[in-house]
Specification:
Largest sheet: 7 strands, mixed
Order of helices and strands: HHHEEHEHEHEEHEEE
Structural class: alpha/beta
Distance between the termini: 30 Å
Helix content: 25-40%
CATH architecture: 3-Layer(aba) Sandwich
Bound molecules: S-adenosylmethionine
CATH topology: Rossmann fold
Shape: globular
Number of helices: 7
Radius of gyration: 16 Å
CATH superfamily: Vaccinia Virus protein VP39
Length: about 210
């Protein structure tokens, strides 16, 4: 795994591209600027790794488009030291962005092979979020409550378990809707009974699936 000047140059251009699309949180941009995205793809896809596009990572899943990663992360308003739960580890790239921003990251993936692959890669890269193989619909009751929850697959609705495992004052960012067309949604838990909802445009995610494979 080598991160050359060429990769770093491509990465700077990627950061500029994401910034030109409206991302303003410098800490998000810094994280994207630091993480070698080409490590997450096969070595023959170095150029593609630094285009602002999603890309297949096997098992019908994708590493999200960098702009989408940046957009969700910005909406989450991450602060250093926060405990954040991610649903859908996938490649592990988003988890690295959150770790770079100083969060304590927990992430769940329902595909055993993707879970194993991302765990091995992130350890090699020196990132140590807590990665779990399991069903994100259930959250992680043993580690709750969380300050923030980030769902990186399209969900028909907000799983109750996730709302229950969120601190009062906490935030969930989740793409809500049917297959292939979701509305990016931010929910803030104002009290045990009051949820504030904001919507931020349409996105396209692979679906959040119920059962483990
Ligand atoms: N965050 C990922 C990254 O940085 O590469 C991209 C996530 S990909 C768009 C969505 C992921 O959610 C897939 O890896 C998929 O297997 C996973 N997923 C779908 N349903 C799930 C569930 N119920 N629990 C956990 N993971 C799930």
């Amino acid at each position: 795994m080598i991160d050359t000047y060429r990769h770093q140059g491509l990465r700077r251009k990627l950061v500029e591209s994401v910034k030109s699309k409206g991302i303003i949180d410098e800490r998000v941009l810094d994280a994207i600027g630091k993480i070698p995205r080409h490590f997450f793809l096969d070595s023959s896809f170095t150029e593609i790794a630094y285009q602002d596009k999603p890309f297949p990572i096997g098992l019908g899943q994708t590493i999200s488009q960098p702009y989408t990663v940046a957009f969700q992360t910005e909406l989450l308003e991450v602060q250093a030291g926060e405990k954040i739960l991610e649903i859908g580890t996938g490649s592990g790239y988003q988890a690295c962005v959150l770790v770079e921003m100083g969060a304590k990251v927990f992430s769940i993936e329902r595909h055993r092979d993707l879970h194993k692959r991302s765990k091995a890669l992130l350890e090699k890269m020196g990132y140590y979020p807590k990665l779990f193989y399991g069903d994100g619909y259930l959250g992680l009751p043993a580690f709750a409550p969380f300050d923030k929850i980030l769902v990186t697959a399209g969900a028909p609705d907000v799983p109750d378990a996730l709302l229950n495992q969120l601190n009062v004052g906490g935030t969930i960012v989740i793409p809500l809707g049917g297959s292939g067309n979701q509305v990016m949604t931010r929910l803030k838990k104002k009290s045990e009974t009051e949820i504030e909802k904001q919507e931020f445009g349409h996105f396209r995610f692979v679906p959040l699936l119920g059962k483990k494979t």
